[in-house]
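Look over this entry.
=====
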Amino acid sequence: MNLVNFSSKRLFSLGAVVVCTVGLSGCFDLSQKVAIGGDGSGGYQIAVAADGIVGEGIAKHKADIDIDDDMPLHTEISYRDGKTVQTSGTAFHDLSQLSLSDETISLHVKGKKLLGLGGTEVNFHRSFRIDSARRHHDEDSDEHLGKDILTSMFGDHTYTFSVWLPGSVDSANTLWVGGHEVKPVVTAQGNGHLILWRMKLTDMFLANQLDFDVDFTAHGNFHDTQTRWTAHHHHHRHWDAT
């Protein structure tokens, strides 16, 4: 699967990225992307795009990222449209290989169409516990960021989550974030579809939890699986990831 070519693996949390970029002043766009193939393998990627002094800071100091030592991370710095972009990602054979803090990603097989001839019906779900990431950031930095401060820092910057899934999309959920309706944009891409949600970074950061849900039908070898939960290094909290 050539959608996401990551040669090595290391995993991280949103909290670490927010800590590093808030320290630089916060003028950045944040995006996360997951891709899953017909055999259940795929890739996970996070990108921070910034201009001006924040971009210079990213170029000089790669983000201090929360690590699962079993999966080294592949990080690249690139430049586009006058912005510095730090992209970090990992490939996986199965979601159960991924250790993530503050979020859980899962696949659930719902059934087969026409005894399997019509493909397998699968639910993709991502639960993003922003309150957990924010709480750890507040504890680590001893400062609580209010909405006015966040708005002045983040301004018109955006948070994007997208997932590439094989086959056809049966449904994808609409989110309400910060009083704004965030509809998924579905685009045919290769032998599948890219489902993308884009929202204001301030709205995302002030939310408690976001749940992204897609039902899709595809030919392949799917089974129920989900990512593992990683406790933050400083606090060692273990959550039930169901």
